[in-house]
Design goal:
two-stranded antiparallel ribbon, two-stranded antiparallel sheet
Length: 231
């Protein structure tokens, strides 16, 4: 009886291992197919066209829409299980990260963002800097989410992207004599103390508006609030 129990346990472990292995292989295959299809659909297009970024974004969104929810979940898990190195990501990886950010935000599952941003953090979402987009969509609570992502990221490329989000958003704090970790914590503390009396700066720089000053804070006192632009 004892031998039979041991055999059953070993069989269960083997089945679980095989299931995990198969899931991992399938996930890699699905992500590979997505990469190949993205390359095929964008091949031959004019990369100098002003519509090139929009075409890439629409292509990756269309490809994800064509996947079932379980397949999208597999692709996401495989994607975040392989963090970026210290080099800038490929075009595909950047657009896929942006697409996942949009989907997570729209599904109101912001607490799952750190898993993505810590491994594949896009510098922007469309023409908007990442920090502006997240605060615009989710308010000041997005700042602690960015901080959590930064502390999870270690020393990969995402950590540099996330730190730059804070550098741009809080230029006054950045000028103080602090380590990077102390600076990020100070930004979170600033939000806790000032969120109720501050508002999003609608004149904050966009990725496609380099003429704006980079010393522009992400938040303004409510008394100095800028007018929200019409959609």
């Amino acid at each position: 009886m004892r031998i039979c129990s041991v055999i059953l346990v070993l069989l269960s472990i083997r089945c679980a291992f095989c299931a995990d292995t198969n899931y991992g292989v399938n996930a890699k295959c699905e992500l590979f197919k997505l990469r190949q299809e993205f390359a095929a659909r964008t091949a031959g297009l004019n990369r100098r066209s002003k519509d090139w970024p929009k075409v890439q974004q629409e292509t990756i969104e269309s490809l994800l829409d064509s996947c079932s929810r379980p397949v999208r979940g597999m692709i996401f898990q495989d994607f975040v299980s392989h963090p970026e190195t210290n080099s800038p990501p490929l075009f595909f990886d950047s657009w896929l990260a942006q697409a996942f950010v949009i989907r997570i935000v729209e599904s109101n599952e912001v607490l799952s963002l750190p898993q993505l941003l810590a491994t594949h953090c896009p510098e922007h979402v469309g023409a908007l800097t990442l920090e502006w987009y997240l605060v615009y969509e989710k308010g000041p609570d997005a700042v602690p989410v960015l901080a959590s992502s930064y502390f999870l990221s270690g020393t990969n490329y995402s950590s540099m992207v996330l730190l730059n989000c804070f550098n741009r958003a809080f230029p006054s704090l950045r000028r103080e004599n602090m380590t990077d970790a102390e600076f990020v914590k100070a930004c979170v503390q600033w939000i806790k103390l000032n969120a109720a009396s501050s508002t999003l700066n609608y004149k904050y720089h966009r990725m496609n508006a380099p003429e704006l000053e980079w010393d522009t804070p992400l938040f303004l006192p409510i008394k100095n609030a800028t007018v929200k632009p019409k959609p």
